[in-house]
Amino acid sequence: MDKSIILDTDIASAFAKINQLELLSKLLHRYSVFITPRIYEELMAPLDFGYTYPLDIFDRINVLHPTHEESKDYQLLILENRKLGKGELEAICICKRRGCVFSSMDRAALRYAAAVGVETIDLYSILRAFWESGILLQKDVEGIIEALEDKDKIPRIDKNKIFD
What we know:
The chain has about 160 residues and is an alpha/beta fold. It has a single domain (about 5-164), classed as 5'-nuclease (Rossmann fold, 3-Layer(aba) Sandwich), CATH 3.40.50. It is built from ten helices and five strands, in the order E-H-H-E-H-H-E-H-H-E-H-E-H-H-H. It has a five-stranded parallel β-sheet, sandwiched between helices. Helix 1 (about 10-15) crosses helix 4 and helix 8 runs antiparallel to helix 9. It is globular. It starts with a strand and ends with a helix.
């Protein structure tokens, strides 16, 4: 495991809500998987409303703390880029400096990360990888998609982008 991946709040919470963090870990077994302190803080909010899925994330995924330089990068970036969330910006700063992969469902965050040279993985790539790797059959991936649409209330997923 020489490569690291940082999961944004949306990816981590989506798989936690459908009780599939273990499956995601199986897919990402070649990576060290992390969240950042600001993503951790974002995940704390649902606990205040009685949701417990963040606890599963905290049990399974370590927090990767920024270095002093990465914190300075973040402080500059948050002034320049007010459209992205704090967790996304912190993750992108760490990924850029350390060569980590950034995974999110937020298209603007993914575009920005790619524009600054950070490798990205979106939800479609994850779902396609479950199928192409043989971890799941197509019908099982379709079940994951239905669960995500139902439990996480994400917009309808275009299955053609996964299975074609």
